[in-house]
Design goal:
The complex is a heterodimer. Chain A is mainly β. Chain A contains no helices and ten strands. Chain B is 0% helix and 59% strand. In chain B, the strands form two sheets. In chain B, strands 2, 4, 5, 9, 10 and 11 form a six-stranded mixed sheet that branches. In chain B, strands 1-3-8-7-6 form a five-stranded antiparallel sheet, with no helix packed on it. The termini of chain B are far apart. Classes of the chains: A mainly beta, B mainly beta. At the A-B interface, strand 4 and strand 5 of A face strand 5, strand 9 and strand 10 of B.
Chain lengths: 115, 110
């Protein structure tokens, strides 16, 4: 079946503008995660959704960052008033109960460039 | 919260040699430790994992060891090949989310 997909693959924006990044998880996966990967750096946890539970937002770096997950499927990560330090690859991952929520399947990422 | 440290940040080996990457974690409640491989321009993919009730796990040329007492775990790649060249990330699961190390760039020279 189809893997995790993300759109857009690349986004260039001007400082101060808002951006929305989309993630389509694998069908049936109830857990969804967002990470940020800056150039040459590791994977920084941002937010985690599990079913209908309240999301774990503990990794969001500022109140300019927010995320939603509608209908338990598609998720949107929104960055308001973008800053140059927001430039990074934003990765989404999903996992399922059948694997004990162990293996996370990653999407291809959205490369965000803030000018 | 959990903190994962990974060493070395870069590792160069000759084809056929072994490579070892080490990680430490801080929260003794972490119970699952996966390793992901990320090739250049690609997404991270799980290559091996280990649960806290196991000390060692092997899959062909790769193995992972876990020392719960010392809170560290390691990835071992034997008989390295050029296609093993990639960035490797360790992670520890804590309260349902993975905390990743900063990655090790492995280069295998033919």
């Amino acid at each position: 079946g189809a893997g995790v997909s993300q759109s857009p693959s690349n986004k260039v924006t001007e400082k101060g503008k808002d951006v929305e990044l989309r993630c389509d998880p694998i069908s049936g996966h109830t857990a969804l995660y967002w990470y940020r990967q800056s150039l040459g750096q590791g994977l920084e946890f941002l937010i985690y959704f599990q079913g209908n539970s309240a999301p774990d937002k503990s990794g969001l770096p500022s109140d300019r960052f927010s995320a939603e997950r509608t209908g338990g499927s598609v998720s949107t990560l929104t960055i308001q008033r973008t800053q140059q330090e927001d430039s990074a690859v934003y990765l989404c991952a999903s996992s399922s109960r059948t694997s004990g929520f162990n293996e996370q399947f990653f999407g291809p990422g959205t490369r965000l460039t803030v000018l | 919260g959990e903190n994962v440290e990974q060493h070395p940040s870069t590792l160069s080996v000759q084809e056929g040699d072994s490579a070892v990457i080490k990680c430490t974690y801080s929260d003794s409640a972490s119970n699952y430790f996966p390793w992901y491989k990320q090739e250049l321009g690609k997404r991270p993919q799980l290559i091996i994992d280990i649960r806290s009730n196991v000390g060692e796990k092997k899959d062909q040329r790769i193995a992972v060891t876990l020392n719960k007492t010392a809170k560290h775990f390691s990835l071992h790649i034997t008989e390295t090949q050029p296609e093993d060249s990639a960035v490797y990330f360790c992670a520890a699961r804590n309260t349902d989310k993975l905390i990743f190390g900063t990655g090790t760039r492995l280069q295998v020279f033919p």
